[in-house]
Each structure stands twice: as C-alpha cells, then as structure tokens.
Design a protein that fits this description.
389 residues, mainly alpha
Length: 389
C-alpha cells in the first residue's frame, strides 16, 4: 500500500505542474487563438493611432512646405529663365519633366501653385505647368512595371501596363491645354473663387509665419524655395506611410475589381480608390499587381486610369486653399472640370475606337526593344523640346 501511494505520488506530482494545453493540442490551439483575438483589437488601435500621427505630421509638413515655397518663389525666376522655362510651352515642359523626376504629379502641381501665389508665374503659365505635371504623373506606373519585369521572369505585360497609363494620360490631358486656356482667358469660371477658411488662415499665420519670416531673414529666397521642395516631397512620403499597403491587394479589393468590369464602373472604381488613398501614384501603381494577377483585363485599364487622374485633383484643390489665393482655386477647378469633361466625352461617345487605338499603340511600343526605345525617346524628347521653345 505504501509502495502504491509512493508510486502514485511520483506520477501525480508532475501532473500538477502540467498545463492542460500540453495534454490537449486542440486546447493549446484554442488558447493561442483566444490570445491573438484579444491582442487583435489592441494591434488595430495602435495602427490606427500611428496612422493618425502620420497624417497630422504630413499635414503639418505640407503646410510648412507651401509657405516656404510661396515665400521663396521670387528667387526661382532667374533659374526658370536660365532653363528657358517661360511661357506656356516652357512651363508645360518643365512640369512634365518635373513629374518624371519626382515620379508624381501632385508635388509639381503644388509647386506651380506656390509660384503663382508668390507672383512668379502668370495664370496661364501656372495652368500649363500643372497640366504638364498630369502628363507625366503616370511615369511611376512604367517604373514599377519595369521593376516587375526585371524581378518577375521578364514578363513584358508589366511594362505594357505602364505604357498604357502614360499614353492614356498624355492623349487625354493634351486637349485640356488649349480648351482650359480658352476657358481661363474668357473668364467662364471667374466666379468660382474659394478663399481659405478664416480659422485656417489664422492658424497658419500664428504657427508658420514666424518660422518662415525668420528663415527668410537669414536665407536668400532661392534657398528658402530650395528648402521647401524636400519638405514638400517629405510630406507626401510621410502621408504615404499612413496609407494601407495595397501592393498586394486584399480579397475585398480584388472582389470589387472583378465586379467593376464596365467602363463607367471602372471609371468610378479608379476615382474611388484615388479618393480613398488621396494618392494617384498609389492608385495607379496597384494596376501592375492587379493586372498581372488577372483581376483586371487590359481593356479595363483605361477607364480606371481616367477616373484616377480626375480624382487626384482633390489634394491640389486643398493646396490652393492653404495658399489663401482664391484665383489659384479657380485655376485648379478649371483644370479639373475641363479634364473630367474630355475624359467623360471619350468614355461615353468614343471609348471603343479610343481604347483600341491606345492598346494597339501600347502593344507596338512593347513588342520589341526597338519599339520600346522609340517610345522612351518620345516621352523624354517631347517635353524637352517644349522646355527649350
């Protein structure tokens, strides 16, 4: 009896220290799942708070950048003269090449508005530079497509998507230049002037004016402008950190992309994605993985790009309000309305022949190395020639 109790004690004692999960693997899995479920809301809250911090920081840097650019705009005039960036054609080429350089149109458009607010550019020159930024904004898609081409078994479809995006932007926004210039000259939208809210103006005057004024007392205007450019790019970088990662779209996004197959639906889809992310670079860039994975067909790219290129004007409109220059808002509004009008006319009445022409041209440009070299030379030479005129 004693031996039995002793044996039982030896066996039972360790069991007292064994966790139930060790005896039941299913219980262990349930326990870990419960722990993850408990931690999930905390993780979501932390991520949401972090994104909120990024948004506030990006907005603060963005306002500072605009104030620096506006105050230092006068110092850029000799530089623009040296580059022959004068007049409508020169500023069109300058904005076009500038969007290539930063691989985004929004910073170039914001710089154009700052130059206008600072008295360096005229109304039509500002309009031309902003339009140039839109012509080259889709270069980011070609760049990402090239990265996919190099890293993903050299599939030419990734480059093809970038070529389609550039051709679509160039062919749709080129007619906006003469039409929009006519609208501005005739004053059709002169009554559309929205000034900055009083509270926003007071906030900027209180927080940013002392900083910018003090910097201007110790720096030449050109240096002040030069300081504003990286600040502006930095604000867009910080804001991108607040956005969800759409490089690998989730199931919901993919399901919606499959449902939106008609041109008008794809137009709305591209607009919605850009409005949600406030970044046309991001909304256009995800075309590459979506198309490569088969969620979008080639013929559906064009209306998506159209919608994205219209919705992207929201951040530029916001920049015009921050500059407290009502006429700047009119310029952006004209650009947006005329651009949307041209795109919708093509979409509703000429989409078939237009899409076939764009896709055929893109196919020829990517069918051989020679064709692609000719395409690259064209998109670089044309804005260069405009800049030199």
């Amino acid at each position: 009896m004693t031996e039995s109790k002793a044996r039982t004690g030896v066996i039972d004692a360790p069991r007292a220290f064994v966790q139930p999960e060790a005896l039941d693997p299913h219980a262990a899995g349930a326990s870990h799942s419960a722990t993850r479920a408990a931690r999930a809301p905390q993780g979501v809250a932390v991520q949401a708070a972090l994104r909120g911090v990024y948004v506030v920081a990006a907005l603060g840097i963005f306002i500072l950048a605009l104030e620096l650019l506006k105050s230092g705009a006068g110092g850029l005039k000799p530089v623009l003269s040296g580059l022959s960036a004068e007049g409508i054609t020169g500023l069109l080429g300058f904005g076009w090449l500038g969007s290539y350089l930063v691989m985004s149109g929004s910073p170039i458009a914001a710089i154009a508005l700052s130059l206008f607010a600072g008295g360096t550019l005229s109304e039509l020159e500002t309009f031309a530079m902003i339009n140039g930024s839109r012509l080259g904004a889709s270069f980011i898609v070609l760049f990402v497509g090239f990265i996919y081409y190099v890293s993903r078994k050299r599939d030419p479809d990734s480059i093809y998507i970038g070529v389609v995006a550039l051709i679509t932007a160039m062919t749709l926004w080129a007619p906006v230049i003469p039409i929009g210039s006519l609208v501005l000259r005739e004053g059709w939208f002169d009554d559309v002037r929205v000034g900055s809210p009083g509270a926003l103006v007071s906030f900027v005057d209180l927080v940013y004016d002392p900083v910018v004024t003090r910097a201007g007392d110790h720096m030449p205007r050109l240096a002040l402008f030069g300081l504003g450019v990286p600040a502006l790019l930095g604000s867009f970088y910080v804001f991108d950190r607040a956005l969800p990662n759409l490089e690998a779209p989730g199931p919901t996004f993919e399901r919606v992309s499959r449902l939106a197959q008609r041109p008008l639906a794809m137009f709305a889809f591209g607009s919605a994605v850009t409005l949600l992310t406030l970044s046309v670079s991001l909304s256009l860039t995800i075309l590459v993985p979506l198309t490569m994975k088969g969620y979008l067909k080639r013929q559906h790219l064009i209306p998506y790009i159209m919608g994205a290129n219209i919705a992207t004007w929201i951040d530029t409109l916001f920049a015009s309000l921050l500059l407290n220059t009502p006429r700047a808002f009119t310029i952006v509004f004209t650009q947006m309305v005329v651009g949307a009008g041209v795109s919708l006319l093509v979409l509703l009445f000429a989409y078939g022949p237009y899409s076939r022409a764009v896709l055929t041209l893109a196919r020829r440009a990517t069918a051989s190395r020679r064709g692609f070299a000719v395409f690259l030379a064209t998109i670089l030479v044309v804005p260069g020639v405009l800049l030199a005129i």
